[in-house]
Each structure stands twice: as structure tokens, then as C-alpha cells.
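Re: that chain you flagged

S.,

Sorry for the slow reply, it's been a week of failed gels. I finally had a moment to sit down with the sequence you sent. For the record, here it is as I used it:
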Amino acid sequence: MPKTIRFVIAAVSLLAFAAGPVPAEDTPPLRALLVLGGCCHDYAAQKDILEAGIEARANIEVDVNYCPDTSTAPPISIYGNANYADGYDVVIHDECAADIKDKAVVEGVLAPHRAGVPGVNLHCAMHCYRTAKDVKVPAQPGTDDSLWFDYLGVQSSGHGAQKPIAIVFTDKKHAATHGLKDWTTIKEELYNNIVVRDATHVLARGSQEPNDKPNFTEAAVVWTNEYGDTKARVFSTTIGHNTETVADDRYLDLVTRGVLWACGKLDESGKPAKGYGPAKR
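Prediction finished late last night. Pasting the C-alpha cells below so you have them in one place:
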């Protein structure tokens, strides 16, 4: 992406968080690892948009782990390395790796989160690492079929045609969504919900006009979960297929708030904690 476009994105993005506290000079940034790669999305462009947009909105330093492979089984470098998140405050999963199903690999991806590292999951991350033989059948929590679903808090099997999604925030008092306004996206993919776990806190729901697939017209699109014995904070949104959506200020606001919430850096009114507002870089 040309530097001029990234500059404009960063400059405009600052307006959304201008009312938040300015980071103290001695406050170290949160360190976020953004993992991208695989099928069906323009990750080459989206990685730059996400990095610039998040860093413009909060005192967060984003490191990008991008795999240019466009298959459904991309050889992302974190695979086989259970310590891949060492030194990071949060991992942002934005992979599209539907055919990475090996239990040992999935356990390795989950290892940092089981140890307490917060997670943020975007769009196709919901359709990765699905070890169940039939993802259309509700998986029993705590089983090998449910490894990734236990982490997410929601089980999804697919989506219908791309159509605009009307997003309605159902909990507007939550720190991650406080003050955010409902909006309708451009043509996007609405992921279905096979199961929304009892402990999952749904923050927004999305709906589309009827399409060619039954039961694909309304679903949770933003939620939080607490994972494992450590109660690691997990924030997820199924929105974000198309690059135009990823570049939308409303989307970047939502994702940045999700990162801050996962790291425990939002107060009850949705403002960044002292030192974690927009950074002067």
C-alpha cells in the first residue's frame, strides 16, 4: 500500500480516539502480534491497514506475521512453535486456514492463550483450526472436536452470499462497544452460528436480506469470551472480509477497542486507560 494512503488512514483514524487520554511519555506500548495469511482475502493490503489503523488509535505496537500463501493450509510460521507469543500482550488472529486441522498444530496455536495471553479474532479466524469431523454438528465442549470453538466461544460452519450486513450493538454499555453506533456494511459475509456458548457475551448482531442458504440471515457478529483456566480475555468479530470494510473507520475503531479490552486497558466508559490513548509516533 502506498505510504500516502497509509498516512491518510492514520491521520483520519486519530479523530475517532481524539477524546481519549494521551499516552504518558513513559508508558510502554502494548505489543500485539498480528497473524495473517491463507485463502480468500487481500491480506497483503489488509495487514498494512490494520497495523496503521490500530497504531493510530492507541498506544499499541503491532508486529505483523504475514504468510503470502493463499491456500486453505498456509504454512504460517507460528505452527509448531507453542512459544510464538512470547513477549506479546495480545495475539490478533486474522488467518484463513480452514484445512489446518491437525490437533497438535491447533494445540500449539492455543498454547499461549491457555497460558493467559489475550486473543482477538477477525473474520476468517472463526473458520480456522476446526478439528471436528462435521462442523455443522454442535461440538461437545472440552473435547478434541471443540478445541478452537472452546477458545472462541462460538461455533460457525459457513456463510451465505455477500450482501450488506446491518450491525446492531446489543450491549452498548460494554467497554469495547460503549458509544459505538449501529451501521450497515457494504457487501460482506455473515457467518452463521451453530452454537453460541452460554458463557459467551454477545455485543452485536448482524442481519442480511434472505439469501440462498436457510438460517444464514441473522447471527452474532461481535462477542467476548473468557478462555480456559486462566480466563484469558478473547474478543471476536466475524466482520472484515473485504478490504473496504477493513479500512472503514468504524471497523478499525471496533478492532482497536477489542484489543484494548482484551488487554484490560479500557475503563467502563470505553476510554483507553491512562497512557494507552493515541500515541505520538
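What I noticed first: The first strand starts at residue 30 and ends at 38.

Talk soon,
D.
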